[in-house]
TrEMBL record:
<keyword id="KW-0004">4Fe-4S</keyword>
<feature type="region of interest" description="Disordered">
    <location>
        <begin position="920"/>
        <end position="946"/>
    </location>
</feature>
<dbReference type="GO" id="GO:0051539">
    <property type="term" value="F:4 iron, 4 sulfur cluster binding"/>
</dbReference>
<protein>
    <submittedName>
        <fullName>Anaerobic selenocysteine-containing dehydrogenase</fullName>
    </submittedName>
</protein>
<comment type="similarity">
    <text>Belongs to the prokaryotic molybdopterin-containing oxidoreductase family.</text>
</comment>
<dbReference type="InterPro" id="IPR006656">
    <property type="entry name" value="Mopterin_OxRdtase"/>
</dbReference>
<keyword id="KW-0560">Oxidoreductase</keyword>
<dbReference type="InterPro" id="IPR006657">
    <property type="entry name" value="MoPterin_dinucl-bd_dom"/>
</dbReference>
<keyword id="KW-0479">Metal-binding</keyword>
<dbReference type="GO" id="GO:0043546">
    <property type="term" value="F:molybdopterin cofactor binding"/>
</dbReference>
<dbReference type="Pfam" id="PF00384">
    <property type="entry name" value="Molybdopterin"/>
</dbReference>
<dbReference type="GO" id="GO:0030313">
    <property type="term" value="C:cell envelope"/>
</dbReference>
<dbReference type="GO" id="GO:0046872">
    <property type="term" value="F:metal ion binding"/>
</dbReference>
<feature type="domain" description="4Fe-4S Mo/W bis-MGD-type">
    <location>
        <begin position="16"/>
        <end position="77"/>
    </location>
</feature>
<dbReference type="Pfam" id="PF04879">
    <property type="entry name" value="Molybdop_Fe4S4"/>
</dbReference>
<feature type="compositionally biased region" description="Pro residues">
    <location>
        <begin position="925"/>
        <end position="935"/>
    </location>
</feature>
<dbReference type="InterPro" id="IPR006963">
    <property type="entry name" value="Mopterin_OxRdtase_4Fe-4S_dom"/>
</dbReference>
């Protein structure tokens, strides 16, 4: 009997239509093809999501998160209509209302504030990708109290990079994947930038390049690294400075690069008695001065033909001036940075530190190469070739979320700069619109005027004490105390301190807390239980201490229950979004790009994109940026804003298809009413490549500078030197030493003198009060999760439905633990009881768990017995926004003293084996929240078409 082959359809119909847009399941902003199929009623529904092969970010690659966007869009936890609270805060008792009523309530609360005291509104947003828009709204309202989530996420990395070289890792740049031969990662988890990094690592490993991972935890990228360095948490800066010591000792530095493109040759005042001690010498035009090797005389750094001298000294008016490079040599050649002196603290042997430093030098210098790219530098000098140094670095939250994170990030930038590996072939390269020096960014503004806009942008880069956000009496102007003597260079604000400061009335009381996508009653707050109490506590008059809370989210998160008015957001497939160059880059280093999202499906609920809701609310409040001269609404919705808003002439939210003299063009141009249609027709993105020869040496390349002006990235060419020596920090030290009119409080003088070193230093994070707590506890995002919403996603929950505490072999044995046992993890602030698992590839004195898997019962439409709510847990219960008392009568923020970034990764704990809790549920087990949306069905299925 012959075998009969089954009839197979080898080309099944995947979809009836493909709609191209931008993913929102993490910060990569990958391009996606959303396949649509007709349902039985003939309506198009999302059936399948794949990567867009034409997109410059991911080139078709898509991760688990991106594919699972279908389940994000169809999540049972989606909010369905505006709601007002009708029970007590935290009760979850709400009443659905119309948008008109919601706007009336919000305007009724906000209008009196704006008319009398705009600072009484605190407006803070989470991981939204429209910060140029939301900051404009807050600025137009007139409150100084605005920031996004960077203060508890990335400000150390971003600020350190911008103050040093005009950009940073993370979203500002990338390795030169085509030429690098040695790639070194520090503190990189797998949730951010995952597709580009995966693609890049695959490319360089195929070519035989080596990858070195520095991280206490070996997962993801570190698991595929050729060499894993399981460093002691918080000591990355010491390790980096020790490698700098080795390189300087061996003379392995790119001296030409340092002299030509950095401030290493810039002269410093070296007279300790001078009020300008440690400041740079400048000419009458404010240009930094160097000694020209040709003439032996001082000259502006950018004069044509100047050859900056790294060795010369200069004496004028009785004061000796020495180059920055002298200071660096004195500091880093000191024996305190020798590998033998740092090895024990770093958990890395002296021999290995020397070997790693030697490997960096070998690849950077012995494997250097030339590209036949002609270019002209900012001094007018023409070059026939470009020198390649094939060593590149990447770093993320692992090194920045410490109280020494700013200086650690600066140290890493210094390391790559002395090797000459920034903006050169084979090294780290910026993504347009970066690089931009700190001086090209605005300074923070805080002048409040009733019924009028703020006097300028809220956030920025201070250049000294005169730029601090202080009131006339010297008290903080902002509720989060950003840009004060406590954290002078807090470029992203301190979102983690807003609720506790508002609750304490320090520096003042607020009236309304307005938040978007910020799950501050759960995984986005330190001291989770304490914060929920702050949100629900009442004063002696029976009124809430924080009087009003407006919140916007797409889902029934934990924060919803603690709010008074809910403005329901759409999912990312149901709204317009703008991934704008006014916010951050999205592309590779060889091109400029931006992108949109657009409603590939219309909402089936009474919800509205938050940005569109702000357009409506801004008009009702009469905010100048959102109303016409006759008082009518200026922007019908966010799409209207994207098209018609101009930040300055010819420059708007989108750079593509702007209207020029001869039709649509990229870069500068007038409003084009078909602009969004042009983006949609092109797959949702715009990209324009940098001309050949202009794509390296961006800060100093005349062709790149001219191209950047043409594209609207700058208004004029602005070449600059990298700042190995951060002069603004020296100005704060001078103030602490008694110089200048604006003086810090006495109790902060010593800290400012010590921590604000203009050359990168390392210091122990403040662990006073942690006696007996000797183990570091960390969290890390899994590759399949990004925001807390990921662990309510039906598909992604199958990958990470619970999170054990991972404990290294040594500690497992010491405490008699085995997989599946339970342990009590205790910090000076609290205790949790959780299941444990052994992990060998882990620093021997570090424990860790996945972040944001644990859920509060009743939230996210999950079953009360869902593993995320019973076996999942948060480390946040162990972390406080304040450090343990020091005995000085003060409570210090658990933050970096320079930027205010939350020091999540300085957590110290102890471990004790315990019996499983009743019901084998992780502790603390908080009472369930009442959900404003129905619980998800037991079996969630989704299929469109046949």
């Amino acid at each position: 009997m012959s075998h009969k082959q089954p009839a197979l359809d080898l080309s099944p119909k995947v979809s009836d239509e493909i709609r191209k847009t931008t993913c929102y399941m993490c910060a990569c902003r990958c391009g996606i093809n959303v396949h649509m199929k007709k349902d039985p009623l003939g309506d198009l529904k999302v059936a399948y999501i794949e990567g867009n092969r034409d997109h410059p970010v991911n080139k078709g690659v898509l991760c688990a998160k991106g594919s699972a966007g279908i389940m994000q869009h169809n999540a049972p936890s989606r909010l369905r209509a505006p709601m007002k609270r009708v029970g007590e805060r935290g009760s979850g008792e709400f009443e659905e209302i119309s948008w008109d009523e919601a706007y009336d309530i919000a305007a009724g609360w906000l209008r009196p504030i704006r008319e009398t005291n705009p600072e009484k509104l605190a407006f803070f947003t989470g991981r939204d990708q429209s910060q140029s828009f939301t900051s404009l709204w807050a600025q137009s309202f007139g409150t100084p109290n605005y920031a996004a989530h960077g203060g508890f996420c990335s400000v150390n990395m971003a600020a350190a990079g911008i103050y040093t070289m005009g950009g940073a890792f993370w979203e500002f740049g990338q390795p030169d994947w085509d030429h690098t031969k040695l790639f070194m990662l520090f503190g990189v988890a797998e949730d951010h930038d995952s597709n580009p990094i995966k693609m890049g690592i695959g490319k360089i490993k195929k070519r035989g390049a080596r990858v070195i991972g520095v991280n206490p935890i070996r997962t993801g990228y570190n698991a595929v690294a050729d060499d894993w360095v399981g460093i002691t948490p918080g000591t990355d800066g010491l390790f980096i400075l020790s490698m700098i010591h080795c390189l300087m000792q061996a003379g392995k530095m790119d001296l030409h690069y340092l002299a030509q493109y950095t401030d290493a040759a810039v002269l410093l005042n070296c007279d300790e008695k001078s009020p300008e001690f440690g400041l740079k010498l400048r000419d009458e035009d404010g240009k930094e001065l160097v000694i020209d090797r040709t003439t032996g005389k001082p000259a502006p750094y950018d004069r044509k033909g100047v050859r900056p001298d790294l060795a010369a000294t200069y004496r004028v008016a009785g004061i000796t001036h020495r180059p920055v490079f002298h200071q660096m040599a004195e500091m880093y050649l000191d024996a305190q940075y020798a590998p033998e002196a740092v090895a024990e603290r770093c958990g890395i042997s002296a021999k290995r530190i020397r070997t790693l430093a030697a490997e960096l030098a070998r690849v950077a210098f012995d494997e250097a190469f030339e590209l036949d790219h002609e270019w002209t530098d900012f001094r007018g000098e023409h070059h026939k070739t470009m020198t390649g140094r094939p060593v590149s670095f990447h770093a993320m939250r692992g090194i920045s979320a410490h109280a020494n994170g700013f200086q650690t990030c600066r140290a890493l930038h210094t390391l790559q700069i002395i090797l000459g590996t920034v903006e050169v072939p084979g090294g780290f390269r910026f993504k347009p619109p970066y690089p931009k020096p700190a001086t090209a960014h605005p300074k923070p503004h805080c002048k409040v005027t009733p019924n009028a806009p703020l006097d300028g942008p809220h956030l920025g880069f201070v250049q000294g004490p005169d730029d601090l956000a202080l009131k006339e009496d010297g008290t903080p102007a902002r509720i989060d105390k950003a840009f004060t003597w406590e954290n002078p260079m807090s470029a992203h604000g301190l979102m983690h301190m807003v609720i506790s400061n508002a609750y304490a009335g320090d520096p003042y009381k607020i009236d309304t807390l307005f938040m978007y996508m910020a799950n501050m009653s759960w995984n986005s707050s330190m001291n989770t239980s304490g914060v929920t109490q702050m949100l629900t506590d009442k004063d002696e008059n029976g009124e809430y201490v924080i009087p009003r809370i407006i919140y916007s989210d797409a889902y029934s998160s934990e924060m919803v229950a603690y709010s008074d008015l809910i403005l329901p957001d759409t999912t990312y497939l149901e709204r317009h979004d703008c991934i704008s160059l006014l916010d951050r880059p999205i592309c590779e280093a060889d091109a400029v790009a931006d992108a949109i999202r657009w409603p590939v499906v219309e909402p089936d609920r009474n919800v509205k994109g938050f940005q569109s809701a702000l357009c409506d609310l801004g008009a009702r409040l009469g905010l100048p940026a959102f109303t016409n001269e006759n008082g009518s609404q200026k922007y019908a919705d966010y799409a209207d804003y994207i098209i018609n808003h101009q930040r300055r002439p010819g420059v708007g939210p989108l750079a593509g298809w702007r209207m020029g003299e001869h039709g649509p063009q990229g870069g500068r141009g007038d409003v084009n009413h078909s602009q969004l249609d042009n983006y949609i027709a092109n797959g949702g993105f715009f990209v324009e490549h940098i001309p050949d020869g202009a794509n390296y040496y961006k800060p100093w390349n005349a062709d790149y500078q001219d191209w950047a002006v043409k594209m609207g990235l700058y208004d004029t060419p602005q070449p600059y030197l990298f700042s190995l020596y951060a002069e603004p920090m020296r100005k704060f030290q001078l103030a602490a030493e008694g110089h200048g009119e604006r003086q810090p409080p006495d109790h902060l003088r010593a800290r400012l003198r010590e921590k604000m070193s203009p050359l990168p230093i390392w210091y122990e994070t403040d662990q006073q009060g942690n006696e007996g707590f000797t183990i570091t506890a960390l969290t890390q995002r899994p590759m399949a999760m990004y925001h807390s919403w990921g662990s309510q996603n039906a598909w992604l929950r199958q990958l990470h439905g619970r999170n054990p505490m991972y404990i290294p072999t040594k500690l497992m044995r010491e405490h008699g633990l085995q997989d599946g046992d339970w342990a009590q993890i205790t910090s000076p602030h609290g205790a949790i009881t959780v299941p444990v698992m052994e992990m060998a590839a882990l620093n021997e004195n570090t424990i860790w768990t996945w972040n944001a898997i644990g859920k509060r019962k009743g939230a996210w439409a999950l079953d009360k017995d869902a593993p995320e709510a019973t076996k999942g847990f948060l480390l946040n219960h162990l972390i406080h926004e304040l450090l343990p008392p020091k005995g000085d009568g003060l409570r210090w923020a658990n933050s970096d003293p320079i930027t205010g970034q939350a020091a999540w990764f300085d957590l110290k704990v102890s471990i004790q084996k315990v019996a499983a809790p009743a019901g084998a549920e992780s502790q603390p087990a908080l009472p369930p929240l009442k959900s404003p949306v129905p619980q998800a069905p037991k079996n969630l299925t989704w299929k469109v078409g046949q």
